[in-house]
Task: structure prediction
Amino acid sequence: MNFSPEQKNIKQMFSSYPIMKIPNFQRDYSWEKKYYGTFLNDILKGLSINNEKIDNSDYFIGTMVFSGKLTDQYIDVIDGQQRLTVITIILSVLASKFKSINDDGLAKATFKYVKAFDDYDRPVPKLKSETSYPYFEAYVQSIEKKESLNPSSEEEENIKETYKYFESELEEIKLRKRLQIEQSIGYKEILIAIRDQILLMNIISILTNDKESAYEIFEILNAKGKNLASIDLIKNTIYSEFHADDNAKDKIIEKQWENIKNILRGRNQNIGFITFYRHFWISKYK
Result:
């Protein structure tokens, strides 16, 4: 197995990594409120008040696995897409909050971790999701929200619900109540402290140019961790077999997989791949 783990914080990773791409074959964004709610609670618990000043603290959020090289235009996210999606959503909400209090400088400084600009002054998202494109980019990776853009899948509904949750929980009244902060500390300072707490979160980043190693690491990390849907492990196993195929079988499989998802979406928005697979299994086997 060929890889080298490295300790980084979110700021370092988002500043130095190429576009982090969540490929089609990865599981959709599926975090429920109990997960992203706990994520926010952990962020807020890391803040402490000392002499009318908010201090940050160290917080470790686990391991993330990427496939590619730092010199590539993209690196594939093999493990960590749920956390990266949530972090991107929170930073986008914070940028909008800064904009709402007329601090365009802080809004821009925060939003650069959501969408930056390349050498030709073209906007480039730091995280690119193939399964939720273009919804994720239009709704989350844009300060000017397109409210008329309706979710067209279960994943996009989850993205919108997550965004709305943070938008509500990061309101001034709620934050003052949760953090027990008096008026002597401004709302802007509270938002800055939350943003910095996110950017200072530590991870172990594993970046490998060997895709086989990346898939192997993915299975090791997820086999004994939080329950991963069977469909995700199946997907990973299939793609690990064909990722370097000379006859582009990986692209054929990717297209077939996406076609199945589109058929399911077209029949019933509430029936996702996981539910379908469970019913298929029960109908075929004891």
Notes: The mean pLDDT is 86.
